[in-house]
Each structure stands twice: as structure tokens, then as C-alpha cells.
């Protein structure tokens, strides 16, 4: 290895929260956060992980459930409310949250209803195909493929067509 500028593999696999470059996201009045997808930065292959900082009064994503990927969250700082299926509960720094696969009964969302930022780490299995349901809006999303851009299709759950339509 030559000099102090040589990059070691081990150093490419480590990132500290205070060194991450967060990107701002906002959508309408409800959604907003500063976030970064950490997995790709460190070369992760089968796990996805990100860091989100959600300002007071916001949430980072819609209420949703996964049929393929399992997720977990770790609250780093702050507090908020976890929506899970038909229930809610307060969460705070130090809480681990498990979101296994399923239907609407496992739908989940973190809401920052406090007066301070809510920061959390999310970890998910990375599968080549995924189906998500969005109970609040009645949508279904299909995601998949190894190529870029990946398939991403959103539709209303009641907009399906018969399997044999246009196959004659």
C-alpha cells in the first residue's frame, strides 16, 4: 500500500452518522425528511439500510406493508408514533421496531408528532421483487428487476385486469 491516500477495503465498509451527507426530501404537507441510503455507499448486497431524520409534524413515507421484504427500525434520537396495522403506540430513542411481511395487518409508518427531530435507522432485506400495499390510499406497488431502472409500477388495488385479458 502506498501513502496515506491509499483506500483500505475495511474503511470502505464503515460510515459514521455524523459523516453522512443527507439529502432533503419533501412531498406535500405531510412528508419530509433528510435521509441517506447507506447500504449502497458501503457495498451492501443483500441488506438495505438508511438513516432518516424526520422534522416535527412530518413522516418520511406513506403507511405501507411489504409482501417480500422484512424491515426493522432503530430509533436513534427523538420520539414519535408508530402506526402498525390498526394500532398506534409511542416510540422513543433506543426502540427497535420489527415489521415482518404480510398484508394490511403489518402496514407501518413512523410519524414525528413531537416538537424535535426524529432520527432512525432502517434495515431491510433486499429482494429482487417486491409488492407493497398502501392501505390509506388503496394503492399497490410492484417493484423488481436487477437492471436499472428497476420496474416500478403503482396502481389502485381495485384496478386489476383479468389474467387472460388481451391474450386471445
Automatic annotation (TrEMBL):
Superkingdom as given in the UniProt entry: Bacteria
Signal sequence, start to end: none
Keywords per UniProt: Metal-binding
InterPro entries given in the database record: Cupin_2, GPI/OXD, RmlC-like_jellyroll, RmlC_Cupin_sf
CDD domains assigned to the protein according to its UniProt record, in alphabetical order: cupin_SPO2919-like
Occurrences of domain Cupin type-2 (ranges): 53-123
Molecular-function GO terms, alphabetical: metal ion binding
Pfam families named among the record's database cross-references: Cupin_2
Protein's recorded name: Cupin type-2 domain-containing protein
